[in-house]
Amino acid sequence: MKITSYGVNAVNAYKNQVRNAKSNTNKASFADKIEISKAAQEMQGVSTYSTERANHVQQLKKDIASGEYKVDARKVAEDMLKYYRF
Known about the structure:
This protein is an all-alpha fold. Helix content is 53%, strand content 0%.
């Protein structure tokens, strides 16, 4: 039996398909959105607190180095009692 390949190369269904690429009409503008949760907003407030705390610590360091810092013994004792009682 003889098999001939008549027109086998001419049959390529994928090659002959025409693609309609209309990129301009199908474009939809997608914009990224960012939503910040309430917890994240509260955390942003903490950053201002940390800068204030850092400034306070720097001032305390200067006072201690210069010898101007005085410890209030009564306040320390009250805070210790509050901590250990509760």
